[in-house]
Write a structure and sequence with these properties.
Layout: H1 10-21, H2 24-37, H3 40-68, H4 74-80, H5 87-118, H6 127-139, H7 141-160, H8 163-190, H9 195-203, H10 212-225, H11 232-238, H12 246-274, H13 285-295, H14 300-331, H15 338-358, E1 367-368, E2 371-372, H16 373-400, H17 403-411, H18 418-446
Antiparallel strand pairs: 1-2
Helix pairs in contact: 1-8, 1-11, 1-12, 1-14, 2-10, 2-12, 3-4, 3-9, 3-10, 3-11, 3-12, 3-16, 3-18, 5-7, 5-14, 5-15, 5-16, 6-13, 7-8, 7-14, 7-15, 8-12, 8-14, 9-12, 10-16, 10-18, 11-14, 12-13, 13-14, 14-15, 15-16, 16-18
Bound molecules: 4-fluoro-L-phenylalanine.
4-fluoro-L-phenylalanine binds next to helix 1, helix 2, helix 5, helix 10 and helix 14.
């Protein structure tokens, strides 16, 4: 049995887990799903799901991860004393693989934007031209595939270094910088003409705009942004010493994540309304609105460049966690196999991701259930596999592990009260499974699946 790797510092773990959480989900996806799903009402539901379902699940993954001190597959069989249960970990590893295959495509787009700015091709266009440019950039087959490869190579390189030197160090620098730049960006957006319309859209709920499908999306989004249901948080917690305060870490991660999603919304929607755009423009939203917002300010392109670099970092720190759990599962935490395994898995993920990459260009007509390959992968991961994983984990934690053992684990490193624990436990046992099943059934009835 090999020695489990460990985080070097308490804050290092929090930032790495926050780094996993904060990524394309909060910055790119949240604004556009909120835009399509009804703005304020969507945000409110997302917030409720995050607190009522997300927090207990996050702590659930933390507890069993640290308890098991093992990889995402063996943890389940070890804790249940029954190898049958490790299918939950296997589903998580599979989900993570599929997820990274299309996540890296968007990571590649960010790299292409960075190159575009550096070559001077992004300054001084009109808002429409930015939208058009986005369409052109993502439909070009060779450059998008190369950029996706570049994104995967960075991910592989960092994760091959191991937990402390790679993931922890990178997250410690990137996360604080991202927060500061975002605040600057929001200040700029809020000073645009008509900015208040955008703020209202995001913060004032109009429940008539909610549909069953948008509720499913809010659920998927809450799990997606917190990296839940995949055993990523479980794996990160398996590298923890017993002195880490789990509730405090979990709450910090949730707050950071919601703050970033809120800042992303506040950066985007004022621009959307100020330029007279549609909030439901979809994936193009951030890539067409932000350059327009930036281009109207002094040194705008320089700021946009800084933003893109941090955006890339945010995406990378999430990508690290996705590949990390696969590596942990395959190597069974044997450090000597880490480098080679990371390379092999990373390259495989890249290859599997190529059709998703092409689905905005060459393969744009290849559709199933009226969805492109990219959308299909995203839908399967965000709205099916992740909620399913979350459902299974909630059942496992609350029904397979004795309640007293869970509480004892949560108390290590913290003086958390029994009341707080009981609320989380109750949610894991009843509210999380019921909510997921209800939302599933409801959405199955209305969607075209
Ligand atoms: N939380 C990441 C984001 O919001 O971009 C995505 C993610 C990472 C989801 C890791 C799931 C996961 F296991």
């Amino acid at each position: 049995m090999s020695q489990q790797e460990q985080w070097k510092s308490k804050i290092g773990f929090v930032l790495a887990a926050a780094g996993s959480a904060i990524g394309l989900g909060a910055i790119w996806k949240f604004p556009y799903v909120a835009g399509t799903g009804g703005g304020g009402a969507f945000f409110l539901i997302f917030l409720v799901f995050t607190l009522v379902l997300g927090m207990p699940l996050l702590l659930g993954e933390f507890m069993i991860g640290r308890m098991g001190q093992s990889d995402p597959i063996q943890t389940y069989s070890k804790l249940a004393s029954n190898p049958k249960w490790n299918f939950i970990g296997k589903i998580g590893v599979f989900t993570s693989f599929v997820l990274l295959s299309f996540y890296s495509v968007v990571g590649g787009w960010i790299i292409l934007y960075i190159i575009k700015i550096l070559s001077g091709g992004l300054a001084g266009l009109s808002q429409d031209q930015y939208g058009q440019l986005f369409g052109e950039i993502i439909s070009e087959p060779y450059s998008t595939i190369l950029a996706q490869l570049a994104f995967m190579l960075i991910t592989i390189f960092v994760v091959a270094q191991g937990v402390q030197k790679g993931i922890e160090l990178a997250s410690k620098v990137m996360m604080p910088a991202l927060l500061i730049l975002f605040i600057a960006l929001v200040i700029r957006s809020l000073s645009l003409d008509g900015a208040m319309e955008g703020v209202k859209f995001l913060l004032v709920p109009d429940f008539s705009k909610l549909t069953s499908e948008s509720i499913l999306f809010a659920l998927g989004q809450a799990f997606f942004t917190l990296s839940l249901g995949v055993s990523v948080m479980l794996t990160y917690a398996s590298y923890l010493p017993k002195t880490q305060n789990l509730p405090q870490s979990g709450i910090s991660i949730i707050i950071l994540n919601v703050v970033i999603a809120l800042l992303a919304g506040l950066a985007i929607f004022p621009g959307v309304f100020s330029f007279g755009l549609e909030p439901n423009a979809g994936p193009v939203l951030i890539f067409s609105v932000l350059p327009a917002v930036f281009s109207q300010m002094p040194f705008g392109m320089l700021f946009f460049l800084a933003f893109l670099i941090l955006f890339l970092f945010a995406a990378l720190t999430s990508a690290f966690s996705m590949i990390e759990i696969i590596v942990a599962a395959v190597t069974k935490n044997d450090v000597s196999k880490r480098k080679k395994t990371t390379w092999i898995i990373g390259i495989l993920i890249f290859i599997v991701g190529i059709p998703s990459c092409l689905s905005y260009g060459l393969l744009s007509d290849a559709k199933l259930f009226d969805k492109t390959i990219f959308d299909l992968m995203d839908y399967a991961v965000s709205n099916i596999l992740m909620p399913l994983g979350a459902l299974l984990i909630s059942i496992f934690v609350s029904r397979k592990i004795p309640k007293a053992e869970l509480f004892a684990e949560l108390k290590k490193g913290s003086n958390v009260g029994y009341a707080f624990f009981s609320i989380c436990y109750f949610s894991l046992k009843y509210i999380v499974p019921i909510a997921i099943i209800v939302v599933f059934i409801d959405a199955a009835g209305v969607s075209d699946w």
